[in-house]
Amino acid sequence: KESHREPKRRRKESEYGLQLREKQKAKFIYGVLEKQFRTYFKRAKSMKGITGENLLIMLEERLDNVVYRLGLATTRREARQLVVHSHYTVNGKKVNIPSYQVKPGDVIKVREKSVSSPKFKEIKEMQVGVPGWLSVDRDKLEGRILADPTRDQIDTPIEERLIVELYSK
């Protein structure tokens, strides 16, 4: 005899569940831990403008993310590691802090010592679409922050209002 079991039904996810999942997704995408994320949120809330947008803009302007967006690393995780290992300079100074906040006008460059490594030869060959708030010179392996990103220039699939709601409880 075949056993007929009822298919398991998934309950509709609660509002809290949705909010939590959105926060976890944002933390995962940007590689940020809970405590850091909460700090970003507090800062975003105290700034003028829309809290959720401020939060995303700060996450986008992390050095590790910008290195990834410029196509100077293949993934955010790799970007983070390359930053930690001091492969980049910001405005000519060595920076090895992934959470370093870049700002418009900053120039990010692969360090002279690193340029000849196979990794960066490979990166130089990559074709990458760079968002409008950044510009990159692939031959020189350097990028420039042209402006703060606007919400519509951030293509990360995050509904930041859910995160704001979660922290507003």
Notes on the protein architecture:
The chain has 169 residues and is an alpha+beta fold. Helices cover 44% and strands 10% of the residues. It has helices spanning 15-30, 34-46, 51-60, 63-69, 76-84, 112-115, 118-125, 160-167; strands spanning 88-90, 93-94, 107-110, 134-137, 142-145. It has a 5-stranded antiparallel β-sheet. Helix 2 (34-46) packs across helix 3 (51-60). The protein is globular, with a radius of gyration of 19 Å.
Provide a short characterization of the protein structure.
The chain is α+β, with helices and mostly antiparallel strands. The protein is 44% helix and 10% strand. It is globular, with a radius of gyration of 19 Å.
Key attributes of the depicted protein:
single chain; 169 residues; alpha+beta; five-stranded antiparallel β-sheet; 5 strands; 44% helix; globular
Write the layout of secondary structure elements.
Blueprint: H1 15-30, H2 34-46, H3 51-60, H4 63-69, H5 76-84, E1 88-90, E2 93-94, E3 107-110, H6 112-115, H7 118-125, E4 134-137, E5 142-145, H8 160-167
Antiparallel strand pairs: 1-2, 1-3, 3-5, 4-5
Helix pairs in contact: 1-8, 2-3, 3-8, 4-5
Structural class: alpha+beta
Low-confidence stretches: none
Strand content bin: 5-15%
* Apparent shape: globular
Helix content: 40-55%
Largest sheet: 5 strands, antiparallel
Number of strands: 5
As laid out across the biggest beta sheet, the strand order is 2-1-3-5-4
From the alpha carbons, calculate the radius of gyration and give it in angstroms.
19 Å
What is the number of helical segments per DSSP (H or I, 4+ residues)? 8
Order of helices and strands: HHHHHEEEHHEEH
Overall mean pLDDT stands at 94
Distance between the termini: 52 Å
